[in-house]
Structure formats: structure tokens, C-alpha cells
Design a protein that fits this description.
Blueprint (H helix, E strand, L loop, with lengths): L12 H30 L7 H5 E5 L22 E5 L4 H6 L10 H26 L1
Antiparallel strand pairs: 1-2
């Protein structure tokens, strides 16, 4: 038989949510960089090497975009998301192919092969922020 008495629950969820809001963007950016590096190593290299150089990672407040042509082709992610993309105008043709050129995918395979490592990087980043609190 259970004894009746006082019990209490301490809720630290508000602190956790505040910490997540504060550091989630940085954590997502760190995870995106894992996939960016993999995509850069998989990208075909032509004479100019612009495709590889144009691959970047971005989160809502951070990016490592480098303009490689005349036009700024940066994608601005929504809050709570990250993007790995290539700024070279022909990146889509290389990734998916054309009627006259076979596909040479580099972004999608980089994501497929490294998504677990990227998620681990996000979790580790947030864990270090939690531990330092």
C-alpha cells in the first residue's frame, strides 16, 4: 500500500527550451558543415573547380557561402533549418543530368551517407552547451 504524502516534481524544461532556442542555429550549421565537406569531396572537378568551391552550408543566421560567379545564388534557410547547396549555376545540371549529359550526383549521396554523422554533430554540439550550463 502506498503512503500518502507530499511529492514534488521539478521542471527544468523552460531552461532546456531556452538553451535550445539559443544554440539550435549554431548546432544545425555545424551538422550541415559535415554534409558540405562530403559533398565537396564528391563533386566532380572541372577546369575551373568552381562547382566544388561553390558548395556551402547555411542556417538561419550563419553561412559560409562564397560567390563564385556574377550572381548571388545563396539560399536563405528558414529558422530552425539548415541548407547545403551549390551556388554554381550549372550545379543542378551536374546533380540531375540533362538530356545530353548523364547525372553525376554529389549533394544527395553526401546527405545519404553522412546524415547520421551530421545528426551526431548537432547532438554533440547541444550536449556541450548543456554541460557548460
Amino acid at each position: 500500500m502506498a503512503e500518502s504524502g507530499k511529492s514534488s516534481v521539478v521542471w527544468h524544461g523552460d531552461e532546456l527550451l531556452a538553451l535550445l532556442r539559443e544554440h539550435l542555429d549554431d548546432a544545425l550549421f555545424e551538422g550541415a558543415k559535415v554534409i558540405q565537406e562530403a559533398a565537396q569531396s564528391r563533386a566532380p572537378v572541372g577546369k575551373t573547380k568552381k562547382l566544388r568551391a561553390s558548395i556551402y552550408a547555411a542556417s538561419f543566421t550563419k553561412n559560409n557561402y562564397k560567390k563564385t560567379g556574377k550572381t548571388d545564388r545563396r539560399i536563405k534557410p528558414k529558422k530552425g533549418t539548415a541548407v547545403i547547396a551549390a551556388g554554381a549555376f550549372y550545379a543542378g545540371w551536374v546533380e540531375y543530368g540533362t538530356r545530353k549529359m548523364h547525372a553525376r550526383p554529389f549533394l544527395r549521396p553526401a546527405l545519404d551517407e553522412n546524415k547520421n554523422e551530421a545528426m551526431k554533430k548537432v547532438a554533440d554540439y547541444l550536449k556541450t552547451k548543456l554541460d557548460s550550463k
